[in-house]
Amino acid sequence: MEKICESIKPLLPSIKPLKAPKGLTKQQMEDMLYKMCAIRAFDSRVRDLWMAGEIYGLAHSYVGAEAIAVGACAALNKDDYITSTHRGHGHTLAKGADVNKMMAELFGKYEGLNRGKGGSMHIADVDIGMLGATGIVGSGMPIALGAALSSHILGNGRIALCFHGDGSTNQGVWHESINMAAAWDLPVIFLIENNQYAIATRMEWVTKEHDLYKRAIGYGIEGVQVDGFNVFDVYNAVKKAADKARSGGGPTLIEARYIRILGHFVADDQVYRDQKEIEDCWTADPVERLKDYLVESGTFTQEKVNEVEKAAKDAIEDAINYARHHCTEPPLETLYDDIYAHGEVIR
Ligand SMILES: Cc1ncc(C[n+]2csc(CCOP(=O)(O)OP(=O)(O)O)c2C)c(N)n1
Ligand SMILES: [Mg+2]
User: Fold this and answer.
1) What is the full DSSP assignment across 134-163?
2) Which ligand does the CA of 164 lie closest to?
């Protein structure tokens, strides 16, 4: 906390020191650390691979946002649903996707999670409740709403969480989805990843009320703002909202405040930004904050933290090796496969 630059604090009204929630086991904290380090390593390497032309399509980095996906997914059950965005690698890894299959998907290989046809922005893993990344800003909202409606009708106790950016909050479908979820008390959590930017547009240029969680009032539901650089703060808020949703209490709007540190997409050099602000943002690095807390609180030794980080980095290098050398290009005759959910090939 003390290390965070004063200059960025006005953008982070919710910032607070890390403190492990009561009841969270050491194993759970190790898992959180491992996943945050894995996401950091995954998206750092994806940038290199994209620049080198080994990864196709566009890629948006989740570096700096790791605490949000990991804190949120740790508070969900395995069979709960999530929907993602164009910036979805962190969500998919945090929900528990196989890292080798994910990397293979980004390489466009047949062994990938979606047989190499989805790539970064259309990755999905329905077996773990990850209903899909999407290139259309705001389009995860009605998908999460539909998943929550199905759970409600079936009474299966599953809830849905929709990750989305501040940019999507001015889309019509955002308002329609929250209104319907609220009116019908559906088991869904709407989690805004408010990083203050939509590409090069600052949130305050297009939105009068900067505390986006306050919009919840207009729908008659609860809204909370959390420190998006603080994995435990995100975890606590999502856990509470998940318990409420599961017990019939309806939706919650959570605004996780952070600041985008890297460019909008991997090759964005951010010429439109104050370079000092970018530098200052690194003082709130969520991975370093968690590592420091775990050592300073005596939860783990420095050696243990280093070991977990190394294991996560090694897993990403192994995944690159797998995708690069042990996977195949999709065969041409599979071009029309998997277009329809029932698997029929229509030519
Ligand atoms: C409906 C729609 N409008 C515009 C775009 C172009 N676009 C892609 S990402 C993006 C910004 C999204 O910002 P935000 O939702 O805050 O997410 P972030 O990139 O900050 O994580 C825009 C406008 C799009 N993909 N879809
Ligand atoms: Mg944004």
Assistant:
1) -SSTTTHHHHHHHHHHHHHHHT----EEEE
2) 1
Is 132 in contact with 170 (CB distance < 8 Å)? no
Ligand 1 atom nearest to 164, measured from its CA: 15
Pocket mutation for ligand 1, best pick of 83, 86, 139 (most atoms within 8 Å of C-beta): 86
Give tens-digit pLDDT for 138-154: 999 999 999 999 999 99
CA 311 – ligand 2 centroid, Å: 31
pLDDT tens string 42-100: 999 999 999 999 998 899 999 999 999 999 999 999 999 999 999 999 999 999 999 99
- Is the distance from CB of 105 to CB of 133 less than 8 angstroms? no
**Domains along the sequence of the chain with CATH:** 6-324 (3.40.50.970)
Ligand 1 binding pocket, CB closer than 6 Å: 86-87, 135-138, 165-168, 193, 195, 197-199, 260, 264
- Residue holding tokens 């070991």? 307
The encoded tokens of residue 157 equal: 């106790």
Q: Tell me the torsion sign for CA atoms 38, 42, 44, 48.
A: positive
Work out whether strand 197-198 and strand 201-202 pair parallel, antiparallel, or are unpaired: antiparallel
Instruction: Give the pair of three-digit tokens for residue 297.
Output: 């609180």
Helix or strand run (H / E) with residue 278: helix 275-281
The values of phi and psi at residue 222, to 5°, are -80, 140
Separation of alpha carbons 38 and 75, rounded Å: 18
Per-residue buried b or exposed e for 264-274, using 16+ beta carbons within 10 Å of the residue's own CB: bbbebebeeee
